[in-house]
Design goal:
The protein is α+β, with helices and mostly antiparallel strands and about 120 residues long. The chain has 2 helices and 3 strands; from the N terminus they run αβββα. The protein has helices at about 15-25, 85-90; strands spanning about 30-35, 50, 55-60. A 3-stranded mixed β-sheet has the order 1-2-3, with helices on one face. Strand 2 and strand 3 (about 55-60) form a beta hairpin. The longest helix has 13 residues, at about 15-25.
């Protein structure tokens, strides 16, 4: 469910204060935060915020397209390493002795070194 428009976007106070002071002093330092729930506001554009993903801090450079999204969306918490490799290898390697289906295109011929 969306947040009420009269309340405005949620951003943790400590993070808002840090961004505000960085804008006032015109500094560009990395801000470390655990606040994945904070919404990205237009004042954050151009800053790099290191968002904690549960294991380490992931640096996120804020651009205009990110405004309105949450910080946690850009610091992934899980690493997908693929599905089981055994099933994929069986499907990819052709089995010797099995012919292709009728009407299927013949396999491409390997280029030979001699000219015809």
């Amino acid at each position: 469910m969306a947040r009420s428009l009269k309340k405005g976007p949620f951003i943790d106070d400590h993070l808002a204060k840090k961004v505000e002071t960085m804008n006032r002093e015109r500094e560009k330092k990395v801000i470390k935060t655990w606040s994945r729930r904070s919404t990205i506001i237009p004042e954050m554009v151009g800053h790099t915020i290191a968002v904690h993903n549960g294991r380490k801090f992931v640096p996120v450079y804020i651009s205009e397209n990110m405004v309105g999204h949450k910080l946690g969306e850009f610091a992934l918490t899980r690493t997908f390493k693929g599905h089981s490799g055994k099933k994929v290898e069986k499907a990819v390697t052709p089995t010797p002795g099995i012919k292709s289906a009728p009407g299927a295109a013949p396999p491409a011929a390997a280029p030979s070194g001699t000219k015809a």
